[in-house]
């Protein structure tokens, strides 16, 4: 799963003009990208704080607060992208962060 091309689709609000995507070479990089996106938002909301911390529940709330978020992950065996919902993203984020914590 880690080396599968992943496209994260997201929409910040109900306004269709907020639709965007992020393109990653692997699912792992996509999970890092989602964390970075949230960390940027925290820095924008707290510009005076040099050290900002958050837990998995905060990250989940950020994802749930978006109008939409999903991921398309390339499956080499069928040569197509498989869609995954935000629940899948949250499960992968937890696994990814646990791996990082154990390094």
TrEMBL record:
Cleavable signal peptide: none
Pfam families: ER
InterPro entries per the UniProt record, alphabetical: EHR_sf, ERH
The keyword Ubl conjugation is assigned to this record: no
Domain of life of the native organism: Eukaryota
Keywords of the record: Cell cycle
Role, per record: May have a role in the cell cycle.
Protein name: Enhancer of rudimentary homolog
């Amino acid at each position: 799963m880690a080396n599968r091309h992943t496209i994260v689709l997201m929409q910040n609000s109900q306004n269709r003009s907020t639709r965007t995507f992020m393109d990653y070479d692997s699912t792992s990089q996509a999970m890092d990208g989602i964390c970075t996106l949230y960390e940027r938002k925290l820095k924008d909301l707290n510009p005076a704080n040099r050290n900002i911390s958050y837990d998995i529940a905060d990250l989940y709330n950020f994802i749930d607060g978006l109008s939409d978020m999903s991921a398309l992950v390339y499956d080499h065996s069928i040569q197509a992208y498989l869609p995954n919902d935000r629940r899948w993203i949250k499960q992968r984020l937890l696994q990814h962060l646990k791996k990082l914590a154990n390094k």
